[in-house]
Each structure stands twice: as C-alpha cells, then as structure tokens.
Amino acid sequence: MLPPLSRRSFGLGLTGLLALPRSAGASTPIMTSDVPPPTLEVLKWAPATRAALQTVMDAHGHYAEGYDPNQRPYAVFDWDETAIVGNVQETLFHFMLEHFSFLLPAEQFRHLLHVGGSEHPLPAQFKNLAGQPIIFSELIQDILEDYRALAAHYGHMPHPLPREELADDPALQAFRARMALYHQALRAMHGEEAAQRGLIRLLAGQTVQDVVALTRAANESALGQSIERVTWKSPATRPGRTGPLSVTLTQALRLTPEMADLFQILQEQGIDPVICTSSLEESVAIFATSAEYGYNLRREHIFGARLSQHKSVYAATEEANYPFPFGVGKTAIIHTHMAHRKQPPLIIFAGEDSSGHLLSAFPQTPLCCLINRKQTADMQPFLQDAVKQRGTSSPRFVLQGRDENTGEWRPDEASIFLGETNPTLP
Q1: Is 317 left (phi over 0), alpha (psi -120 to 50) or beta?
Q2: 87-253 CATH pick, 3.20.20.100, 1.20.1440.320, 3.30.300.180, 1.10.10.10
Q3: 234 Cβ partners below 8 Å, 6+ apart?
C-alpha cells in the first residue's frame, strides 16, 4: 500500500492530493492535554478570518473539554463561489451548450423552458445587435428552432459531441448564445432561484451516469481554461425572430486549497463539514468527495438540488418531499438532516446568493464566514455586518477576500473583482 500523502500536499491542479482525514471516524476526544489541536495553514487566508475559525474549532472540537463524540459539531458550507471559485451548475450548462449535450426530443425539451413567456420586451439591458428589444416568447421560438435543427443533424451521434465538430455550425452558435441569454433574462425577470431551477431542469433525460460524466468533463475543461469574460454571438445567417444577438458570460472555475485544508482540519478536530448547495447534488459530490480534487468529504454530508428519477434517468420534476436548496429550502434541509445533532451549525460559510435565510435562521451559530463577492440584496445585510465587525475581538461575521482575475484568495477581507485592479470591501 502506498503511504498516505500529507494534507500539506494540496495544489491547484487535479494531481494535488490530500490524505483522507485522520479523524473522520473519531469517536473519542483527545485527552492528552499537551497535544496541540491541528491548525489551519496560513496560505492566503485573511488573518482575522483564519484566527476566528481557529478559535471556534479549538473551543468546540474534540481537543476541547466537554466535547461529546455522540453529538459531533458540524459546519455548513455553500459549494459554489465558496469551496471553489466559480459555479458548478453554470459551468456544466456552458459545457452542455458548447457540446450540444441534450438528449430529449424537441417537443419534450420545449417543456423545460418557460414557454409561457411574456409578449412584452425583455428588460432594457437585453437587446439584439441592432439595438432592438427582444421579446421573450420570440426568443423561446428561436431556441426551439435551433434545437430541432441540431437534434436532426446530430441526434444520432454519441454525446457529448466533439466541440470542433460544432464550432462552425450556425445553428449551434445561435443556440448557445440564445440559451445563455435566456438564462440571464430568466434571472433578471424572475430572480436567482427561478434561474437556478431552470438550469437544473435542463438535465432531464440524462442518466445519473451521464450527468456525472458530463460534470467531470466540464470541470476538467474549465479548470484548464483562463478566467475571463467570453462573448457568444448568434450569426447573421441565422437571425430568427429576435435578430442576431450576443451575450457575455464569465468563464471561471478554480479549486481553493484554503477550503480543502479547512475541511481536513475540521475533521481532525471532530467537526463534520456539511455541504448545502443550490447546484445539483450529484454534480457537487464529484468535486466534494474526491481525493483527486483534494476535498475528501463524506458523501452523506453533501446536500444539493435533486431531480426525481425513473430507472436512474432524471425527470424534469424536482424530487418529492425534498426542498429546493435555496433560501428557506436550504435552511429546511439543514433542520431535517441535522436534527439528530440537536444543535445549530458551529460555523456557516457562505458564498452563494441562496444563503440569506440560512444565515438568519441560526442566531446561536458562533461564526459566519462570507466570501466577499458581488451578491444579491438578500446577502447585503450580512456582508455589511462583517464589514462593521472588522477589527473587533470576537466577530460573529467575518469576510474572506479573493482575486477574481486569478481565481485565488487574498490574505485580506477586500476582493479584487473580475476586470478590476483595486481591492474593494462590500
């Protein structure tokens, strides 16, 4: 047997491995008083945030007096924009568009879209290349025509299709641009939750194994690409009802060694990291449980969005009796699945737009860590609390900054946003 790798060996790359947590199955507290508790690597933590985390872990982990191995503390984490830089679901969505990885007949695909869209123009920021307004219902019709053309041409071929075979196809160029704009318009008109649910539904017709393979391919592709804004255009040769249009999206996916180290130290301290994310559960589990990616979390501690299944094929409906993990739904999942712990989360670490309710639902949680990024109005009060508590001796809300141009954290609470050069606080 090969000797286990040190947890210090994690690197930004698929070959950087971490050892399996030494105490993931620990059942008794460490009684030797002269054994120091494990500490977080310095890496690129904001010093005050790292110190606050270490203090809470040392006070409540199994190196502390009063630790009860039968009521293990737990910490709740978002996944997107938190444990990683980027968004797993959007990365998969973009990959599926570029490779036309959709299996449903056109009429069934139609039901995955908001086909009852308004006859009124989209919000002012959505115009075609001629500066004309875009009608939502006409955009849907154009998308369906593109889909029918692509399905007729490529439907018999194994999926996902090679990118090079599709890159010059006007129907593919139009389809991906219109679908990306559709998603952005859905978010603008109906909010983040509706847009996220729409992304999840697009996986209908795939087997669980299909989605696992697609997610892995999308992850590996995105990890090897530069972080940048990318513009997709529908060609003039395929104007449709809406006319040629363009859409700009962000291409970004990076591993975060600081979070991998934190997960390891939590488990060595007898504290369970629990993921609760708005992305598809199986897509996140590939990342979160893998030694290849460096996170090594337990599968039973990964909670995400779920679709109903029939013979391992995803349907377009969400799993019954399981909340969608957004807002109050995310909180409900923690209440239900962590009820046996009989205690609130020890730590909440949030970066997704869906965590405002979670942060307010557990006032007894000692520490809430927030990724400093541009977020929705629901998250702003918590970000402002973190700013106000900077420099205090026992903050409950703390910030972690990052450089979105490199995909790395910064040893400070301020972040450098994509395309900018100056660090900024909320």
Answers
A1: beta
A2: 1.20.1440.320
A3: 173, 174, 177, 178, 240, 244, 245, 246
Give the tens place of pLDDT for each residue, 182-204.
999 999 999 999 999 999 999 99
What is the C-alpha separation between 325 and 124, in angstroms, rounded?
30
Q: What is the pLDDT of residue 159?
A: 76
DSSP state of 329: H
Lookup: tokens for 232: 């997709």
Asked if residues 297 and 263 have their Cβ atoms less than 8 Å apart, the reply is yes
| Domain residue ranges in the chain | 7-83+256-409, 87-253
Q: What is the pLDDT of residues 247-262, one digit of tens each?
A: 999 999 999 999 999 9
pLDDT for residue 26: 44
Say how far apart CA 76 and CA 62 lie, in whole Å.
18
Q: Which helix (H) or strand (E) holds 27?
A: none
Of 23, 46, 28, 66, the C-alpha closest to 269 is 23
- Report pLDDT for 6: 37
For the full predicted model, state whether its pTM sits above 0.85.
Answer: yes
Please name every residue paired with 348 in a beta bridge, in sequence order, or none if there are none: 76, 368
Q: Are 198 and 173 in contact (CB under 8 A)?
A: no
Chain segment 98-128, per-residue pLDDT in tens: 999 999 999 999 999 976 667 889 999 999 9
